[in-house]
Amino acid sequence: xxxxxxxxxxxxxxxxxxxxxxxxxxxxVSSNLAWYQQKPGQAPRLLIYSxxxxxxxxxxxxxxxxxxTEFTLTISSLQSEDFAVYYCQHYNNWPPWTFGxxxxxxxx
Amino acid sequence: EVQLFESxxxxxxxxxxxxxxxxxxxxxxxxxxxxxxxxxxxKGLEWVSTVSNSGGSTYYADSVKGRFTIxxxxxxxxxxxxxxxxxxxxxxxxxCATGPYPSGSYNWFDFWGQGALVTVSS
Lengths: 108, 122
Hints:
The structure holds 2 protein chains of 2 kinds.
Chain A: E1 4-7, E2 10-13, E3 19-25, E4 33-38, E5 45-49, E6 53-54, E7 62-67, E8 70-75, E9 85-90, E10 103-107
Chain B: E1 3-7, E2 10-12, E3 18-25, E4 34-39, E5 45-51, E6 58-60, E7 68-73, E8 78-83, E9 92-98, E10 111-112, E11 116-120
Parallel strand pairs in B: 2-11
Antiparallel strand pairs in B: 1-3, 3-8, 4-5, 4-9, 5-6, 7-8, 9-10, 9-11
């Protein structure tokens, strides 16, 4: 089973600042990686798939990069609605499909 | 507009059974694999099970294998999760989700339902 490790667990950022979230896979997942955003009481929402492709309707301030075992989600200028928990998920060598433990982006 | 609506959650005693349903609309149900993902209170996301578009292929997490059964009725655009021998650690919000491909292979999850809470407690 591929283990996904996200860092940091919590990221404190001021509105308008840049946020950089990391996700590491225990073995190569090629570019088969997705990012999700989840707000309290809501279902997850797909942000990025194939490591760097934004899903439909996702603002350009969200960008993904990386391949193999190291991935990054960058939010270029945090808006109030971006404070949430973010999860990475691989879909390589499935099953199982596994998620990272999440990074909470909170207001500084 | 893609819509997924889960139902059937509730309180069940340890060892009991429950069936979740997920009604789908707004897309061609028969073209897409379907998946259940759960989230224990205050915890992260855990993949549970996936079924291919035809229902012919099913996949399970080790934590539920032998206790849960995923199925679909393509005539009703509905996904199911039959859960038995339930344990306290199965307590979670259960989400149904769909991916872009029919077979489940290399699938991310692009649309999610709002979730159904299952509580296993005496």
